[in-house]
Give the backbone structure.
Amino acid sequence: NAGVTQTPKFQVLKTGQSMTLQCAQDMNHNSMYWYRQDPGMGLRLIYYSASEGTTDKGEVPNGYNVSRLNKREFSLRLESAAPSQTSVYFCASSEATGGGGANVLTFGAGSRLTVL
Amino acid sequence: GQSLEQPSEVTAVEGAIVQINCTYQTSGFYGLSWYQQHDGGAPTFLSYNALDGLEETGRFSSFLSRSDSYGYLLLQELQMKDSASYFCAVSNQAGTALIFGKGTTLSVSS
């Protein structure tokens, strides 16, 4: 089982360039999430999709857009990359909608983005 | 909003017991989760407490006190492979996503 697959694993951008991080899960999960991880800052929620057809802002949504393409896929787009968006990005999915932490998150391997 | 506090670093030796504390403030509480992340890897789920008390899973246990807005992760018989970052997490107000603490880096030495 692949679980949660993120592409690309590594990317270097110049300031102002755009790019899309792709995420796909094969566990038939309803909810999907995008987090960023910076040293000393833990995992911060960018956007999430509680179910197909819905998306909501998380803690740090500025500078990002998302698309829940179908039940399997959830993409994160940087329209005009900035050095402050240099980070490791994690996609995650969970089976159910609601119910708090009882919904166990399964994470992808991460995408390391550097913006010069 | 939700906020969580946990120590940034903890050190211990093999075979010892270590406790990682987490205090939280939430506008709606569903439970406290714990995740482990090895360096360069993805976070993985360890435990979830919705009710007060101790939950045991092998060498790891997790405790919750809702009245104190406090929980901890207890790791026993520490092994070198337990060196990792540990994150506590609570749900957002709607219960639809997890908000994580900044993490505690555990270093186990021989």
